[in-house]
Design a protein that fits this description.
Structural class of chain C: alpha/beta
Oligomer: heterotrimer
Helix content of chain C: 40-55%
Chains: A alpha/beta (631), B alpha/beta (439), C alpha/beta (135)
Order of helices and strands of chain B: EHEHEEEHEEEEHEEEHEHEHEEEEEHEH
Largest interface: A-B, 87 and 82 residues
Shape of chain B: globular
Number of helices of chain C: 4
Strand content of chain B: 25-35%
Shape of chain C: globular
Strand content of chain C: 15-25%
Number of domains of chain C: 1
Chain lengths: 631, 439, 135
């Protein structure tokens, strides 16, 4: 029983104290029998706040601490570390939340919020009174990581990890690395092509033998935890003999009689059934078995190749699974009805493949209307997709540069050419392209008149004037939606409301997910442009390196423990444990600490209450209930 | 001072990006020297009340880092210190630092503030953007880290009262700049941003005079970082949101976006990325503090592009904040001292005049001495004076010099999540560089 | 009211919040959602930990209702397995409640994922309505 508990109630600079009467909370608990001191302070998490706790621990000889402030997800560690520095076992600190769980949700009723805060603080005092000293579990971290997704984010991750001496398994489901960035006609702000960027990353990646690349790979199983993840993959065969020269591949592609639409160019061009991707990786061919007629004209086919299964292990996993362009619905701005309504990624490829003049579906394009915010800022997808404004302006400039005089209309809501990208907006204006601001309540309508498409739109910049804009091509500036991946469910990574993967906290833990050891990089988190994508990839590596380079992690000690005095060896816990971590030895239950997940399921039905989860003992819960009984 | 002759990494700038980079790289096991030119770390973020789009308090994000940095066993923090010279020798860097005199013995000072109490000199307080004063002997702000006093000798009258009041005899008027030489394996530039000076936009009538109304001086025209202080829980007048002119609670306020951004005439053609969102956030904080208050935002485009931003913008719009797409031509002053916004409403084409109790200029961000530090480091800058990123698409943390990396807003305006991402990106590039050099 | 006095509230709901549900409560705070303040939150890693007799103990010792907010199939410890184990716990608790003559409505269980703010708010409203109907 702890007899000298210190209680600290944070104002959070008004976030709490505007609604919760913190003085009253202090008053309500300061005379409890095992409370040695109770104080309030403007920012408990600040240096001064932490010093307050540390001084009290030393001067008043505290044996327990309760901090009532924001969510423990934000600052539990801060206070535990502070206590440890003052010589108190960090697990004798109970951090409870009176901000997210109280002041912010009961701002409409300050009296009730204050009462609830008192309840929360009292229960924490009861809990800490029965708390035990615990020691964190030290976990060795092998310098080995798994990166899922071989786009620019995944490649950046792999390179940065490898440079730090970490072994990397890079998994890509497509036959080649590069992802969607490879398809970008012209990147902003560097002006390179997407495939230039991919080529540079590939060249760098090839220098590191500790990067193991698996393309054409499907993840079939993923399990484990920080320090020891297992990912099982099935690698589909390329059906091409190994060790053939570049020249042989070139000839083979030439000889292949089967032509199919090239998905890389959204069907604007054809490829063969056997093909390679210039400036990507691996520099090997692959045979598309959906279309191959097995004629073996290419001479390098090997139809006997079998799927191979690999079991990869890594101390951490970085998810870099990316996003995909929003696919407009049939009829959305007449998409799918008229051939000449296309999306921005298709337009990008059109710019890349056209030579001399801009032509689409047999028609020369002289005027273009870009419609912005398609699939973004709508009821279905409330979020802004961030990259599309600048990408569209940049594509329009690219079109002008490559094909000369074009008449271009930008039909937009807000031009979000943020930061230095403002110059693209300016340039587009200087080039004489026209801007029309539309009202999302009354969106533009695309119709056909003769061989032209007519965009009917009310222009908010001219007081709502009805305009009819005749063009050859309508380009829908589509947003991004998350690319679904099986591994999300296997690892149980949580999503945000926008459907993308959720970080723990946008500022404090921006690349971490709720699943320890699983980090996120690139556009699976949120729409990003290429700069932001590679930055976030490097950032995820930076955070991962705090474990992988250091070589160990320290984990919370909350695992099951058995009181052998009480245990009668009935083995109910053995049945209840979902992790198979308990066995009976000499008539008593024994916990395998490495396997224990810390769920606590083992204790729920124990007839003698001999088994408890450390940090969450049943007697603590009863004490928490008891202390509130009179209230 | 217990400074080692060699560190793995030198981090220049102790704002949020610099602290983030220092802590991450130190957590990975490397020795870090963090240098901050101001007397406290914390940067701009510590002056901000709440962050968008979650409106959780900025202090809760900043203060734990400010507490963790000086405590970290792998970090050596030097405040009030500037980088004077850097020379690359082989793969390493020879660095000359100058620790400016505080005129207070740092090791002795206990931050009790007695010197501040007795000092008779009052000058505008930087931390509050001049909304209130500070003494010549002062602690920069409540949450300063380290919480140590210093003496502003330019304004000191040498009365000696602080010297007599100090319980630790820590005042030392004979303090002198100290040169420090160290060798480091890699460098991260995290020098951050500065605010655009709204005085330069003459038509908007901001003079920085917060006390009197002269013909052309209206204290009810303030800039957004001042307004941020007025909205902060630790606000300078101890009552949230009083206007500086006369202490009245402003019932109608207006924000003028793009002040000093997207403005070629002022030499800053680029967008500052954060002003739309911080203004929307401030409008929300204002209407929460003053429920009968009305807020209007004059904008060109609302750039709510980050995670959760659009949702936040929609929420604030629904709460009744008025958005006017228009260009503010000038701000005049009425006879009653109220500012009058004269703007062209793009949607009606009309010139509209509207009176407000207070106008907030949403000022943009400019480089914070990155040209000077770039010269010392030998790295290139972009046309606007920010640190250049030669491989911006593929490796944005790289600068033009191998072994020197860049974090946060030293590369240009950006919001906190982007700044943090670039800080951690700089960490992984540093580690890669250090490891490769070693092998 | 004298300082230190407690405000009298009509009833009290105990929320056992498993990891994801605890995050949903955080999320509710970030969104400034509103729900009944007659609530006390006990943080638990996973709802499978709850002893059925602990629920009865709470209901007999001052709490008017218990809300077991599990992580549902998103449980970071057990995943989908969590759901069936928790429902087994609740079945057992119902049996105990029947024996004690406590209404089953006083025990509510729901899977709450980290973004399920609506589930959280609606469930609490339901419990609140029930308790108010009982006076």
């Amino acid at each position: 029983m702890r007899e000298r508990v210190g209680v600290y109630v944070c104002h959070c600079g008004g976030n709490i104290s505007d609604y919760v009467d913190v003085k009253k909370v202090v008053e309500a608990v300061k005379d409890l029998p095992n409370v040695a001191v109770a104080r309030d302070f403007i920012f408990m998490c600040s240096d001064a706040g932490q010093d307050l706790i540390k001084e009290d621990i030393k001067n008043l000889n505290l044996d327990g601490v309760v901090v009532a402030s924001c969510s423990p997800h934000l600052h539990e560690k801060t206070f535990r570390d502070a206590a440890a520095l003052a010589g108190l076992n960090p697990y004798l600190v109970e951090h409870v939340c009176i901000r997210e769980h109280c002041s912010w949700v009961h701002s409409d009723d300050p009296e009730a919020a204050t009462q609830k805060a008192i309840w929360i603080v009292k229960s924490a005092i009861a809990k800490v009174s029965l708390a035990d000293e615990l020691q964190p579990i030290r976990l060795e971290m092998k310098p080995e990581a798994i990166v899922v997704g071989g786009g620019i984010a995944g490649m950046r991750c792999a390179i940065d990890l490898a440079k730090a001496g970490i072994k990397v398994h890079l998994i890509e489901k497509k036959p080649f690395l590069g992802g969607r960035a490879a398809q970008i006609f012209k990147l902003y702000p560097s002006g390179k092509t997407g495939s230039d960027l991919v080529k540079e990353l590939v060249d760098e990646l090839k220098r590191y033998p500790n990067i193991h690349v698996y393309t054409n790979a499907e993840i079939v199983e993923a399990s484990g935890a920080l320090g020891d993840f297992k990912v099982k993959i099935v690698v589909k065969p390329r059906y091409v003999k190994e060790g053939v020269s570049k020249e042989e591949i070139r000839r083979a592609v030439e000889c292949c009689p089967v032509e199919v639409l090239d998905e890389f160019n959204y069907g604007l061009t054809n490829r063969k059934a056997i093909y390679v991707r210039e400036s990507s990786y691996p520099e090997e061919a692959v045979i598309d078995m959906d279309h191959c007629i097995k004629c073996n004209e290419c001479g390098i086919a090997d139809f006997e190749q079998k799927e191979e299964t690999y079991e990869l292990r890594g101390s951490m996993i970085i998810l870099a699974t990316g996003a995909k362009p929003y696919e407009p619905k049939e009829g959305e701005f007449s998409y799918g009805i008229y051939d000449h309504v296309i999306t921005l990624p298709v337009f990008d490829r059109l710019l890349a493949v056209c030579d001399g003049k801009l032509e689409y579906e047999g028609k020369e394009i002289k005027d273009i209307a870009f419609i912005y915010c398609v699939g973004s800022r709508t009821e279905e997808h409330e979020y802004c997709s961030r990259y599309c404004c600048v990408a569209t302006l940049n594509a329009a400039l690219g079109a002008l540069e490559k094909f000369g005089k074009l008449r271009v209309y930008h039909i937009y809501r807000d031009i979000r050419a943020y930061g230095k990208y403002e110059t693209y907006y300016e340039k587009v204006g200087e080039e004489g392209m026209l801007f029309i601001k539309y009202d999302p309540e009354d969106p533009p309508v695309v119709e056909r008149k003769g061989d032209k498409l007519i965009v009917k739109v009310r222009d908010l910049l001219t007081g709502g004037e009805e305009l009819e804009v005749p063009v050859d091509l309508v380009v829908l500036s589509v947003g991004m939606v998350v690319e679904e991946a099986e591994i999300f469910n296997m690892l149980r990574v949580p999503f945000s409301r926008d459907g993308f993967l959720q970080e723990v906290h946008p500022k404090l833990k921006p690349v971490e997910t709720a699943i320890g050891g699983v980090l996120i990089a690139g556009t699976c988190q949120f729409p990003k442009d290429t700069v932001e994508t590679t930055a976030s990839a490097s950032a995820a590596v930076g955070r991962a390196e705090t474990y992988l380079v250091k070589g160990y992690a320290e984990l919370e000690p909350f695992i099951a423990e058995v009181d052998p005095e009480k245990c009668d060896g009935c083995s109910v816990c053995v049945e209840e444990c979902p992790a198979g971590a308990i066995r009976i030895e000499n008539g008593k239950a024994v916990i395998n600490e490495a396997l224990c997940k810390g769920c606590g399921a083992c204790g729920a039905l124990c007839p003698t209450e001999a088994i408890n989860l450390k940090g969450y003992k049943y007697e603590q819960f009863r004490a928490m209930i008891d202390i509130l009984k009179e209230a | 001072m217990d400074i080692k002759p060699e560190y793995d990494v030198l981090i220049i700038g102790g704002g949020y990006a610099g602290m983030e980079a220092s802590l991450t790289i130190a957590d990975a096991g490397f020795e870090v020297l963090l240098v901050e030119k101001e007397p406290s770390i914390g940067g701009h973020l510590i002056q901000i009340s709440k962050v968008f789009p979650t409106t959780d308090c900025a202090g809760c994000i900043t203060t734990p880092k400010m507490a963790a940095v000086p405590k970290h066993p792998k970090i050596k923090l030097l405040t009030y210190t500037e980088v004077k010279n850097v020379e690359k020798i082989g793969k390493k860097f020879r660095v000359k630092l100058v620790k400016k005199p505080r005129y207070v013995i740092e090791e002795e000072c206990i931050g009790c503030g007695r010197c501040e109490e007795v000092c008779p000199v009052l000058v505008p307080k930087e931390f509050e953007y001049g909304l209130i004063g500070r003494k010549a002997a002062y602690i920069p702000f409540e949450m300063a880290s380290p919480k140590k006093a210093l003496i502003d000798l330019d304004n000191c009258i040498m009365c000696g009262r602080c010297e007599r009041a100090c319980p630790k005899d820590a005042i030392n008027f004979l303090d002198e700049p100290k040169e420090i030489d160290v060798t480091v394996g890699a460098i991260v530039v995290a020098t951050g941003y500065n605010l655009f000076s709204p005085e330069l936009k003459k038509e908007y009538g901001y003079t920085g005079n917060l006390t009197r109304i002269h013909d052309n001086e209206n204290p009810n025209i303030i800039h957004a970082f001042q307004f941020e202080r007025l909205l902060a829980p630790s606000c300078p007048y101890h009552t949230v949101c009083l206007r500086p002119g006369d202490g009245k609670i402003p019932e109608r306020i207006a924000f003028v976006l793009c002040t000093g951004s997207r403005d070629k005439s002022l030499g800053n053609p680029i967008c500052s990325r954060v002003c739309c969102m911080y203004s929307i956030k401030q409008a929300l904080l204002y209407t929460s503090a003053i429920p009968y208050g009305e807020a209007t935002i004059y904008y060109m485009d609302i750039r709510a592009f980050g995670k959760g931003f659009e949702e936040f913008y929609n929420m604030v719009k629904e709460l009744g904040v008025r958005f006017v797409k228009g260009k503010v031509a000038k701000i005049e002053t009425n006879e009653n001292g109220n500012p009058v916004v004269v703007a062209e409403n793009f949607e009606t084409g009309e010139i509209e005049r509207e009176e407000y109790d207070m106008v907030i200029l949403s000022v943009g961000l400019l480089p914070n001495g990155s040209k000077e530090i770039a010269k010392i480091l030998g790295v290139e800058t972009d046309p606007y004076g920010w640190i250049a990123q030669p491989d911006v698409n593929g490796n944005p943390a790289k600068t033009s010099v191998e072994g020197i990396f860049v974090a946060g807003t030293a590369t240009g305006p950006m919001d906190l999540p982007d700044s943090i991402a670039l800080a951690d990106a700089a960490v992984s590039q540093c580690i890669a560089y250090l490891k490769e050099v070693k092998d | 009211m004298k300082s230190g006095d407690e405000i009298i509230m009509t009833h009290k709901i105990l929320i056992f919040a498993a990891d994801m549900a605890y995050r949903a409560l955080d999320q509710a705070g970030l969104l400034h959602a509103h729900y009944s303040p007659n609530t006390v939150i006990f943080r638990i890693p996973c709802a499978t930990l709850i002893r059925p007799d602990l629920i009865v103990y709470a209901l007999k010792n001052g709490f008017d209702a218990v809300f077991v907010a599990s992580s549902g199939p998103d449980c970071p410890f057990l995943g989908e397995k969590c759901v069936s184990i928790v429902s087994k716990r609740i079945e057992k608790a119902y049996e105990l409640l029947d024996k004690e003559g406590i209404e089953r409505e006083r025990l509510v269980v729901s899977g709450v994922c980290s973004t399920c703010v609506e589930t959280l708010v609606n469930t609490l409203e339901r419990i609140e309505n029930f308790l108010q109907s009982r006076g």
